[in-house]
Structures are given as structure tokens and as C-alpha cells.
Design a protein that fits this description.
- The structure holds two protein chains of two kinds.
- Chain A is α/β, with parallel strands linked by helices.
- Chain A folds into two domains: about 130 residues, P-loop containing nucleotide triphosphate hydrolases (Rossmann fold, 3-Layer(aba) Sandwich), CATH 3.40.50.300; about 80 residues, Orthogonal Bundle (Helicase, Ruva Protein, domain 3), CATH 1.10.8.100.
- Helices cover about 45% and strands about 25% of the residues of chain A.
- Chain A is built from eight helices and nine strands.
- In chain B, helix 3 packs across helix 6, helix 7 packs antiparallel against helix 8 and helix 7 packs parallel to helix 11.
- At the A-B interface, helix 3 of A face helix 2, helix 5 and helix 12 of B.
């Protein structure tokens, strides 16, 4: 038995443009679209069993693509992904719900999709509802839920369905402060000993949950290691560099403006 | 192939649970609920019977028009609903597809299964009509089982093909209803295969649904075995479609989440 939970070897992902549609655009409208750019490039990393790893990076740095590749919902353009164990979790908030169905029906749907049998869901149903604090709304259709309610339900399902690897993508960005605290506590107690991959913009949450962190920049891993130095690197170097780039741009603009005036 | 069957077996609980929920939820917000399953074909039968047996008289193989029509109309509506809905199978479940990695063909089976249950319910209507006209199916009615099996293979193949291709090119979902509407007139549903001029019969026979619908009529209404050469053609056609659909689906499924 291998001791790693997730292993990526030279993984790259390019979102291809639809060839038929772009040919049509070229023929009829004379537009040529640029080929997609690499969302992820040459990623090699190993996450061991029981480790909790955060993924840090700006919007568009490839965090969500990386999670999706680990989850297996999208295939890498190149490279190899090996996952040992059952994956659960919550990515893309509220996306896994069928909005015409009630909260209760959606728990069943999500449960079976995650590989549970109906009887097994019956057993954890009450706990899921109780933790999500949605007792009064559980039989109403999901379309009437607020985004906070959807997160609570989705998070609660992710927490109670037994899986070896848990992926959490910005799950604590919505919802009120009290629930966030409760969720953070729950992650630490419920998911103890499990492999966790956690995406968050909050340094506080990352520190509370993870020991290690990956820093992604423009689709590449620039750092993988201890969480404190990763946060340091991310906040001091990448964020500052971005700020500088924006400053330079606006300076350039104002210079151009002054020349023309 | 063996691999595919064991995969389906592994996911049988998943398919069963979701089919059940699909059936329950469909008519939830409608006043008459499940009655619609029966009301729709009954209404259509009454209208078509009035039009084609009173206004314009169509030959119906020496039988009253209503049972003659219903024996083919119900399987057609079953076919039409499932194939027409196929283009929504992947696109309509985008949430689940983007968030969870599960056995994708299950979604097609779920649709087929829930439509099959609805079809089963409409058969009560057929029984009532046969009873009313005092038509008692004989032993040859058992031939409906292989005929239905062929129809389901054809449906599954088309559903696999349409659902997966539509994820990439949405024109499929727009064209399918048009082609199906044509198919309704180009298949022997409202008229008999033997009522069309003989020189056109071979052309008509190219439609795989011809052998299927005629098969139901022969077996249930005439207590005769189906026209085997027609049915054999339908069977081969269906299997080819299933193979094409299955391969296409498997080729396209790995990047569904990028395109829906």
C-alpha cells in the first residue's frame, strides 16, 4: 500500500476551444481565436495520507483547475494523476444541487453520487440536517435557499459523508461568522487524520486547518512546503508584485495621458 | 463490453435511487400530478381517432382505429420523450457533472429507466382500450418482448449519442425535435405499413421504427409473429447505433465538465 494519497506527475491542462465553433467563426466572421493558454503547467507534487494542504494563489492562478483535476471531473491535457482513496468534498458552491428538488432530496442525490447507498444516507440524514441548521427549510426546494444556506447544506454533506480525501474550495467564504467558526471547528474534529486539500483566501483559516501549502502562480507551483513560509511568500512576493504591476500600468497610462494633453 | 456491464452493475444503487427521485419529482408542481402520464396519450388518441376514422377514413388493417393507433402511438411517445429529452441529460445536470466524478452513463440510464416506468403506466390505458374493443391478445403477443428490447437498444444508443454530442454542439438539442416530428409522420403510427403503395414500402422499411411498430401490431392485434426481415433490420440498425453511441459517449465524457 502506497503512503501517498494524491500524486501528480508533470500535469498540464489547457482548456481547448471548440474546434467546430472556432472554424465556423473563422469562416463566417473572419475571427481567429487564440488557442487556449495553459491553466496548469508541469505540476508535479505528492500529498501524503493524512496531510492537510492549502492551495494559495490569485484568481486565475489555476487553483480550481487543480482541484478539478484531483477530483477527476476534468482530465489533464498531459501528465498523470493518481489518487488513492475515496474523494469527497465541496467545490463550486451550490453547483451540485438540483434546484427544483428539496434540500432533503438533494442530500440523497449527493449521497448516492458520492457512492453511498440509500440506507447509509438514512443513517446520517438527521446529523446532516442538524449540522446545517436547516431544519425548517429542508423540505423546501433548493431554489428558495440563500447562498449561505446552500453552503451550509453542501458543507454539512461533505463533512458527514465518509471519504478519505476531502477537497474544500472556498467553502467558508460565504455564511455568517458564527457558522464559519463552527465549520472550522468541525473540519478540525471531524476530518482529523484525513487528507484535506483546502482553498481559501483567508490566512487565518488556512493556518487553522493546514500544515502545508502550495503556492500557485500563473499555473505553476512556485512553492510547496510549510504553511507559514508559504503564506509569507504569497503575501509578500506575489501580492506585492501584482500591486507593482498595477502601479506601473497606471503610471504608464498617466504618462501617456500627460503627453497627449 | 464485459467491463461496461460490470460498471453498470456496480452503479445499480445509484441508478435506482436517482431514477426513483426523477420519477417522483417530475410532476411535483402540477395540480393533476401523475395523471398527466395517462391524460396526454389518451387525449391524443381521442383526437387522432376522430380525425382519422370519422373525418378522413384511414385503412386500419380491418381493426377499429383506436386500438390500431394506440398500439403504435404509446411506444412512439415513449421513444419520442426519451430521445427528445436526451440532449438535456448532460447539459441539464451540469452542476453534478462539474462537482462530482461519478459514472456518467448512469445519467442516461436514469432517463431511460424513468421514461420506461412512465411507459409502463400508460400501458394501463392500452389495456383499457383493448378491453373496450374486446380484443384479446393471443400467445404471439409475447413477441412484443423482443420488439420492445430492440426499441430500447435503439433508444439507448440514440440517447448516448445525442446527450454527449449536445454537450459540445448545442445544435443537436435544437434539431432533434424537428427530426422527431418528421419521424412521427414517416413511421407507421397513424397509418398501416401495408396501406402505403407497394413501390414505396422498401423506402419506408429503411426507417428502423417501421419494423418495431409493425411488430407490435402484428403481435398484439393480429396474434401473428412480426415481419422478421423488417425486425431483423431494426435489430441490426439498433445495435450499430448503440455501438456508435457508446463509443462516442465514452470518448467525450472525460471533458464534459469543461463544456457544460
Amino acid at each position: 500500500m502506497e503512503d501517498y494519497a494524491i500524486k501528480l506527475t508533470k500535469v498540464g491542462k489547457i482548456y481547448k476551444t471548440n474546434r467546430l465553433l472556432s472554424t465556423r467563426d473563422k469562416l463566417i466572421f473572419g475571427k481567429t481565436k487564440l488557442n487556449g493558454k495553459w491553466s496548469l503547467k508541469d505540476i508535479s507534487l505528492t500529498i501524503n495520507k493524512g496531510e492537510s494542504v492549502a492551495i494559495l494563489g490569485d484568481n486565475g492562478s489555476g487553483k480550481s483547475t487543480l482541484l478539478k483535476i484531483i477530483l477527476g471531473v476534468t482530465s489533464p491535457t498531459e501528465g498523470e494523476v493518481i489518487v488513492n482513496g475515496k474523494i469527497g468534498g465541496l467545490i463550486e458552491l451550490g453547483a451540485g444541487f438540483q434546484k427544483e428538488l428539496s434540500g432533503r432530496e438533494n442530500i440523497y442525490m449527493n449521497g448516492v453520487v458520492l457512492g453511498l447507498k440509500e440506507k447509509e444516507i438514512d443513517e446520517i440524514l438527521d446529523e446532516i440536517i442538524e449540522f446545517s441548521e436547516l431544519e425548517d427549510h429542508i423540505d423546501k426546494p433548493i431554489k428558495t435557499y440563500s447562498s449561505g444556506m446552500k453552503v451550509r447544506l453542501g458543507f454539512s454533506i461533505a463533512l458527514h459523508v465518509n471519504s478519505d480525501i476531502v477537497l474544500l474550495d472556498e467553502v467558508l467564504a460565504v455564511g455568517d461568522k458564527r457558522f464559519r467558526k463552527k465549520a472550522l471547528r468541525a473540519i478540525r474534529s471531524f476530518l482529523k487524520g484525513k487528507t484535506i486539500v483546502f482553498v481559501s483566501h483567508s490566512a487565518h483559516q488556512v493556518k487553522a486547518v493546514c500544515e502545508k501549502a502550495i503556492v500557485l502562480d500563473k499555473g505553476e507551483v512556485v512553492y510547496f512546503g510549510d504553511v507559514d513560509s508559504a503564506l509569507d511568500l504569497y503575501e509578500n512576493e506575489i501580492v506585492e508584485r501584482k500591486d507593482k504591476e498595477i502601479e506601473q500600468k497606471s503610471e504608464k497610462n498617466s504618462q501617456e495621458n500627460s503627453i497627449t494633453t | 463490453m464485459e467491463n461496461s456491464i460490470s460498471k453498470i452493475w456496480e452503479n445499480k444503487d445509484f441508478i435506482k435511487t436517482l431514477s426513483k427521485r426523477e420519477i417522483i419529482s417530475r410532476y411535483k408542481q402540477s395540480l393533476l400530478g401523475k395523471c398527466w402520464i395517462m391524460l396526454e396519450p389518451m387525449g391524443l388518441m381521442i383526437v387522432l381517432t376522430i380525425v382519422f376514422s370519422v373525418f378522413v377514413k384511414l385503412p386500419s388493417e380491418g381493426l377499429p382505429y383506436a386500438p390500431f393507433l394506440f398500439v403504435a402511438l404509446l411506444p412512439w411517445m415513449y421513444f419520442n420523450k426519451a430521445v427528445n429529452g436526451a440532449s438535456r441529460i448532460i447539459v441539464g445536470n451540469s452542476g453534478l457533472i462539474r462537482q462530482r466524478n461519478f459514472y456518467r452513463p448512469a445519467l442516461v440510464f436514469i432517463k431511460l429507466l424513468s421514461e420506461t416506468v412512465n411507459f409502463g403506466i400508460t400501458l394501463i390505458g392500452l389495456m383499457l382500450v383493448l378491453l373496450y374493443y374486446n380484443i384479446l391478445p393471443g400467445i404471439n403477443a409475447l413477441y412484443t418482448v423482443p420488439v420492445l428490447f430492440i426499441q430500447m437498444i435503439l433508444m439507448l444508443g440514440l440517447m448516448m449519442l445525442l446527450s454527449s454530442v449536445n454537450a459540445y454542439i448545442r445544435d443537436v438539442g435544437l434539431v432533434t425535435p424537428i427530426i422527431l416530428r418528421l419521424g412521427r409522420y414517416l413511421s407507421p403510427i397513424m397509418y398501416s405499413f401495408y396501406a402505403i403503395p407497394e413501390q414505396y414500402q422498401p423506402i419506408m422499411a429503411l426507417n428502423p421504427l417501421t419494423g418495431i411498430f409493425d411488430g407490435y401490431r402484428q403481435a398484439i392485434l393480429h396474434n401473428q409473429p412480426p415481419n422478421m426481415s423488417l425486425l431483423l433490420y431494426s435489430g441490426v440498425f439498433s445495435i450499430v447505433i448503440l455501438i456508435i453511441g457508446w463509443i462516442t459517449f465514452n470518448k467525450l465524457e472525460k471533458d464534459f465538465s469543461d463544456v457544460v
